Amino acid sequence: MTARRPKKSKSSRELTLKEISYQIDFHPRGVRTSDDIAPCEEIIGQARAIEAIKVGLHIKSRGYNIFVTGMSGTGRTTTIQHLLQQLDHHQPQLNDICYVNNFKNEDNPRVLVFEAGDGKRFKKDMAYLVASLRKVVPKIFLSEDYKERQSRIVREFENRQKELVGKFEEKLDTASFVMVQIQAGLAVRNEIQPLVDGEPAPMEKLERMVKDGKFPTARLDELHAQWEVLRREFDATSLESKKLTTKMEDAIEKLNLSMVAPLVTEKINLLRKRYPLAKAIEYLNEVEEALSQDLDRYREAQPRRGEEEAPPYRKREPFEEFSVNLILDNAGTTKVPIIIENSPSYKNLFGSLERVVDRFGYWRTDFTRIYSGSLLRAAGGFLVVNALDLLNEPGVWWPLKRALRNGEIEITGFDPFYMMAGSGIKPEPVPCSVKVVLIGEPHLYNLLWRADDDFKKVFRIKAEFDSVMPLNNENLKEYFCFVRRRVTDEGLLPFDVSGMQGIAEYGRRLAGHRNRLSVRFTAIADMVREANFCALEHTAKRVTRADVHAAILKKRQRVNLVEEKVQEMFDSDVLLVSTKGSAVGQVNGLSVYDLGEYSFGRPTRITVNTSLGKAGVINIEREADLSGPIHDKGVLVLSGFLRLMFAQDKPLEMSASISFEQSYSGVDGDSASSTEIYGILSSLTGLPIKQGIAVTGSVNQKGEIQPIGGINEKIEGFYDVCMAKGLTGDQGVILPRQNVQDLIIRPDVVEAIGKKRFHLYPVDTISDGISVLTGVPGGKRLPSGSFTPGSVLALADQKLRTMALTLENWTRQEKKNNNDANGRKKEKKRTPRAT
Question: Model pTM?
Fold first, then answer.
């Protein structure tokens, strides 16, 4: 079968300058510079997120906390602050929080909740109470009336003791016994001894005298009996004397109480009337009892009865236990608290228990050393935290969820090295109503949603911040207002209309779409500042579009060192790429180098060799473990396209090897799948491909070209290589038609296209692309099942049919040769050997 001579294809329609130009000409009436526009006051381009945030802020039920997601730089934190400040909160219902001593259990301090302002007054009133009692009570003990009453009690009990002792001494005299004091070491003890010859004689001495016959035995027995009776009476008298001493002390205590208690009760009653809360009254009852019962504290914590020295726990201010620790003071707060916690450590978020070493070397803490954190300071209001910072802090996430779920905060010491912890206390939990707003990336929200069941219960509102907004006159005006805000707030040069248009064009480029504007206003604000700097460099009075373009160029030059190094390898032919002439089975693909902050495109030579065989499409990158999963999928998809187009009436007896030349670090993505098909078709048909045209675009199994990412970087990258090697006027890029709306290319590339020195060819199918690359019509399948005569597809189909027949004939001939050879071997075995 003789192939027809291929026809030359008509030139495919390329994009015109008007179609690729993205210069914005929006010019509000009466506006000459940014000074003629009012600065923006509202959040721009985030209507969806604002509505979600408002729902979360207005619903007071527990669990309606907010998780804000979106790209960094889209104004998430600024928006939250703006909305919280503008929200109509009416009169805030705020409280004061105090910790006080628990007189029943000092390790469990009490929490008292007052209305805003009352906590500060309560602390002041308690301090005044203690100060007044410390001043008045000692004067009571020094008064003449108190001294007279105390003396009367002492005299009464002393007389009773003298009477008791006198009666016992009379019995001693009657029985001829005396009380003798004997030194026993450092102590002195009383001993009853009989009088013998007018002198006291110990019983032991009399017993020795009886043994020596110097004292009558009967008299000794009589004295022993009397001594036993007197000893028992002495013990009884001593016990009674001690009872009298105790009664005297009790009487003095009652006297002290009768003198002090009315004063304490009077002052405590005033506080009860002023603070009628149930918990406050319970605390004041304990305070009244402690102040009335323990009067030693008024003597500056002197040693108690029976103590040589005050114990360590008394080695402190004697009235410290009556102090009030005001950990949350909202006395001067007139607005709902909005706390932004930039360092959400456990201590900063929940508060802490401070421990100190006392004079005896003991770790000590008490209720006066409890400190609040930002979560409590935001009570009744809002707390804004970065989610990633929060999750990076150890021991914070679970207590936060517990606090939000239970509506109360437990202030405890965070001791990761628990063996070093000192004496601990467990303060009573603080009731707390706070709305928490977490700001994080979308993947972080999805991770928490899947992995943490409690997350769904405590963060019921998700607010998604978009990164782009529609390009229309209203949003362009908002852009201009944003420029004015930056100029006003930072004292920059005014922007003329072209300068503001240039900023909007930069936002268009960031959005990556001709009909969108970026709302990453952090990057936009940076460009406003940098354009202002470029204008100042040449002492301009206004910032123009040229200054914006200069700032963009400077920004690129600051981060494109790697791009320049790669370009040097193209210039020196270390990286082989042809931008002129034509070649069979060789195509220029386009790839993007993503460095994070900066990305750029460059061409890559893709070569294809085809032959007879049954291996199909061989992905050399995959065989060398340098291919990613998406690229592998793209190769399998193009194999499906080849089977659909050419294997419906014959087997596909072909082996095709595809290689990304000089690629040593791995390949991924499917944007080169159409390029690989063009290479296979060229290798099959022998039609050369124009090397001045690069290709990008993925393909599906039906042969339709699909859009890809990084289109601007790829076009600019190939243009730079062509520019370095010399523009011929025939160079350009084939791209998916769907990517036309994404074209926001550099002004120099736009200028070259306008002068017909560079070209862009949008295509819809493989047939469209191969016709541009070869100059031969791509063709299509006809109702008869064949292809357009003389087209690339027809030539490829004819070649594959020939290859299938050739392989079939070769297989048949090879089989016949094998059969003949086997027959000769068998015949040789049957021939008898001569004898």
Answer: 0.75
